[in-house]
Amino acid sequence: MAVKPLEDRVLVKPIEAESKTASGIFLPEASKEKPVKGEVIATGPGKRLDNGKRGEMSVKKGDTVVYGKYAGTEVEIKGQKHLILRETELLGVIEG
Predict the structure, then answer these.
(1) Taking the model in full, what pTM does it have?
(2) Side by side, which strands form the sheet with 37-43?
(3) What are the structural domains of the chain?
């Protein structure tokens, strides 16, 4: 099953936070924060502008992005959780 986002939406696979601290202490599941970064799996064609053309997306497949803690809609694809977000819900792109 493939999901192709529409308009200015982005399909993101969340990157889970580490379960171990830098000093080697394992964190219990209850203390973990909800992930706020992920990898772009697919993007829509872009938002339709007033002149009828499509706006260019500022992210592309493979980018690592940061988003708000409660942003987007959760969907399950092939047993894995993904998020569908509007491009405006993305806070930034992680480079490097």
Answers:
(1) 0.79
(2) 73-77, 80-86, 9-14, 37-43, 64-67, 90-94
(3) 9-94 (2.30.33.40)
